[in-house]
Amino acid sequence: MEKIMELFRKIEKEKEKPEAPAQGSETYVIVGLGNPGKKYATTRHNVGFLALDTLAMESDIKITKIKYKALIGEGRIGGKKVVLVKPQTYMNKSGESVQELLNFYKIPLDNLVVIYDDIDLDPGRLRIRKKGSGGSHNGMRSIIRLLGDDGFPRIRIGVGRPERQDLASFVLSPFAEEEKRDVAETIEKASMAAKTIVSEGLDIAMNTYNG
Fold first, then answer.
1. Can you list the positions of beta strands (E) in 4-131?
2. How distant, in Å, are the alpha carbons of 10, 20, 147, 159 from that of 142?
3. Which of 13, 61, 66, 125 has its CA 20 to 30 A from that of 192?
4. pLDDT: is 18 or 133 the higher one?
5. pTM of the model
6. Is 168 helix (H, G, I), strand (E, B) or coil?
């Protein structure tokens, strides 16, 4: 009886240990920025979440695990391991989740890709960059501050800038009906761009999808 109880205790301890990252294979961490909760699901600030959900669906990856203050899903794209990440900290603390993930997976910054909304791009426009500041985006500013480095690729999805509306309420508002088709196409392109970065490289993704 005592030996069986000891076995139970050993198994329970093993279950509590975090899974080690895969050895001998290149890993990419792809982060979509947004705010958790149904009321934010289709707002301008959540296009990063939407692009990540699209990528997950196309790559048959389920984003269901709760780890590192995020919902994550693990799978493979182009023969490489990918970790899809939706921080659940709310936007202005996104860096907490990303920092924990990078500390665990020990990947180079080149293998971190962040997808997010950009008010300086018109709805339907897409920009991919190798590095740069976070601008006015609180999620990106949080990530750069906690990582202490802005040298990682990012995919920016245009959401437009308000004419009269307060900026904070604007990014938390849904798209106008006439914007939805262009934005949907751009979200799809962002998903394909992320896949291309992993499978073919950042330069090819930039040449193909920047527009």
1. 27-32, 65-67, 70-77, 80-87, 112-118, 126-129
2. 39, 26, 9, 20
3. 66
4. 133
5. 0.86
6. helix
Dist CA 102 CA 30 (whole Å):
11
Amino acid identity at 59:
S
Beta strands 27-32 and 80-87 are parallel
CA angle (155, 159, 179) in 5-degree steps: 125
Rounded to an integer, the average pLDDT of 24-49 is 89
CA atoms of 183 and 50, how far apart (whole Å): 11
| pLDDT surpassing 60 at residue 3 | no
Tens digits of per-residue pLDDT, 163-173? 777 778 888 88
Task: State the catalytic residue, choosing from 45, 125, 137, 141.
Answer: 45
Q: Examine the residue annotation and report whether 45 is marked as an active-site residue of this protein.
A: yes
Q: What is the DSSP letter of 148?
A: T
Half-sphere exposure of 62 (CA within 13 A, CB side): 3
Distance CA 28, CA 105 (A): 9
